[in-house]
Design goal:
It is a single chain. With 368 residues, the protein is α/β, with parallel strands linked by helices. The chain has two domains: 15-117, Up-down Bundle (de novo design (two linked rop proteins)); 124-367, Alpha/Beta hydrolase fold, catalytic domain (Rossmann fold, 3-Layer(aba) Sandwich), CATH 3.40.50. 43% of the residues lie in helices and 14% in strands. It contains 13 helices and eight strands. The chain has helices spanning 15-27, 34-42, 49-72, 76-94, 102-119, 172-177, 191-195, 206-217, 235-245, 270-276, 281-288, 318-326, 351-367; strands at 127-133, 136-143, 152-157, 180-186, 227-232, 249-255, 304-309, 331-336. An eight-stranded mixed β-sheet has the order 1-2-4-3-5-6-7-8, with helices on both faces. Helix 3 (49-72) runs antiparallel to helix 4 and helix 4 (76-94) packs antiparallel against helix 5. The longest helix is centred in the first third of the chain and has 24 residues, at 49-72. The radius of gyration is 19 Å and the shape is globular. The chain starts with 14 loop residues before the first helix and ends with a helix.
């Protein structure tokens, strides 16, 4: 047995320790079992990718087998929870594989298949949407709240490496508890659009989001006049961009702000390049010039909430302050200070405070 991973400083984590925080955050909301995760991590040598792939895929396979057996026995509650764990373990297994790796695609498809099977056991069952955009297909999942009073619709935009399914463990449950339906989308450059279809993300992300809003607005029971948008991680750029140009959005949350991508052109992360469809550093630098909220944030007319951690290692807190200063709408800035729980990236270590902060704010804005 190997020693469990130490997280020496969760506010300035390595890539692996940041993912470990995320794993435990999601386990709290059904995306794993804390003790399964601890036992799995004990079998992984630090910085050994082969160990990582093998051990997470093994526990994913075990969870999937448990779910399949439960289904054969008619034990739907057991099956749903096991399929959810299997989904997230497969997702974790493929996380550090490069886009285009056949194994990454295999694990991605296995993960999504498990989540879809779990979704059939939800009450009400999850609804999958598919829309046409720029000669390609984009996907989303519609979650309907069981609340007797419907309070609005949240469009949830993922980050670079988050999937539409994973978002269920990252706040969607909190939205549903508040009578908010949720459409979890994957635009170009994200999830299936990137992994399976090679669709790069446009800087004017409001265009694909408008197609999603058009489609979901046709669904029965959707409160299309009370739409909020949440953008998490890279979504902290995408959501404000959408809110600036999409008048149907009545409230916007930038959950981890990014103001100007061109400021990261000297050493761009590989996944940033993949999202933009850049073949090399020079091409990325050219595309990134358009990914800025300068002259854009001032066009936002709906209320804006910005949530950021002062020690965020992915995007500096200066992004949050710049977005706040640039915006002229009703605006609120919440910065978790250095040393506070939540001062890292997207508050992985403090969902108990952050989920209510965000979704209570949305509830007040769209239901008023």
């Amino acid at each position: 047995m190997y020693a469990a991973f130490p997280i020496e400083n969760i506010y300035r984590p390595s890539a692996w320790s940041d993912m470990i925080l995320r794993i435990f955050e999601e386990a709290e909301y059904g995306g794993g079992d804390t003790f399964e995760c601890l036992r799995t991590l004990q079998r992984i040598r630090p910085n050994n990718n082969e160990d990582w792939y093998r051990e997470w895929s093994n526990i994913a396979g075990s969870s999937e087998a448990l779910a399949n057996q439960a289904m054969r026995e008619g034990l739907s509650a057991t099956a749903r929870r096991a399929y959810m764990r299997a989904y997230n373990y497969y997702r974790i297994a493929q996380f550090y594989m490069n886009v285009g790796d056949e194994k990454k695609v295999e694990y991605y498809k296995k993960a999504c298949d498990c989540f879809r099977k779990a979704g059939e056991l939800f009450s009400p069952p999850l609804e999958y949407l598919e829309v046409e955009y720029n000669k390609g297909k984009l996907e989303a999942i519609l979650y309907r709240s069981n609340s007797k009073k419907k309070n609005g619709l949240v469009i949830y935009i993922q980050g670079l490496d988050t999937q539409k399914e994973e978002a269920y463990f990252l706040g969607i449950q909190a939205a549903l508890e508040r009578g908010l339906d949720v459409l979890s989308i994957e635009g170009p450059g994200q999830g299936a659009a990137l992994f399976l279809r090679g669709m790069a993300a446009p800087y004017d992300f409001e265009k694909p989001v408008a197609v999603f809003i058009d489609a979901v607005s046709k669904k029965e029971g959707i409160m299309k006049d009370k739409i909020a948008i949440v953008g998490r991680s890279m979504g902290g750029y995408l959501a404000p961009r959408v809110a600036a140009f999409e008048s149907r959005v009545k409230a916007c949350v930038a959950w981890g702000a990014l103001f100007d991508m061109s400021e990261r052109v000297d050493n761009p992360p590989v996944n940033w390049m993949a999202m933009l469809g850049a073949k090399n550093k020079a091409e990325f630098q050219e595309k990134a010039k358009l990914w800025t909220l300068k002259g854009v944030a001032s066009k936002i007319r709906c209320p804006l909430l910005i949530v950021h951690g002062e020690a965020d290692p992915m995007t500096s807190v200066s992004n949050a302050y710049r977005l706040y200063d640039e915006a002229t709408c009703e605006k609120t800035l919440k910065v978790y200070k250095l040393g506070e729980p939540g001062c890292g990236h997207c508050q992985h270590d403090n969902p108990a405070m952050t989920f209510p902060l965000i979704f209570d704010w949305i509830l007040r804005k769209v239901s008023s």
